[in-house]
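Researcher: I'm preparing a figure for a lab meeting and need a structural model of a single chain. I don't have an experimental structure, so a prediction will have to do for now. The sequence is pasted below. Please return the structure as tokens so I can convert it later.
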Amino acid sequence: MPPESADTTADRTAAQQPARATTPATGAGPTPELPPKIKAALGRYRVAAFVVGVGLLILCLTMVLKYVFDVPQAVVVWGPIHGILYIAYVLLAFDLAYKDRWSAKGTILVLLAGVIPVLSFYAEHVVTRKVRARQKV
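Model: Understood. Here is the structure written out token by token.
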């Protein structure tokens, strides 16, 4: 079988081109494959970050109900639920930090992101990008 010339390679459509993995940060070079334990821990962390982010927004809403509309029952019910969700977030973030060997500073910043409304969504995005690119958090 003769080797392909440059002309026939250039005629291929994008769907026919061989897939090339690139790093998200630079757009060049192959993306290293995540070890299965880190990949699983990242998946669990991503779910926890989303759930805690939504839970914290709900907690803010319940606080508005309590202090503006004098409905304290909302916080009485949702406060402990949010506390349990945040504890799970902390454990799963520590699990990922341990398996991916994060710095202490990166770990603390990710944990703090879980207590500031909306920030956990951004932190999850940054953590996912860095872990997949095999960069330090």
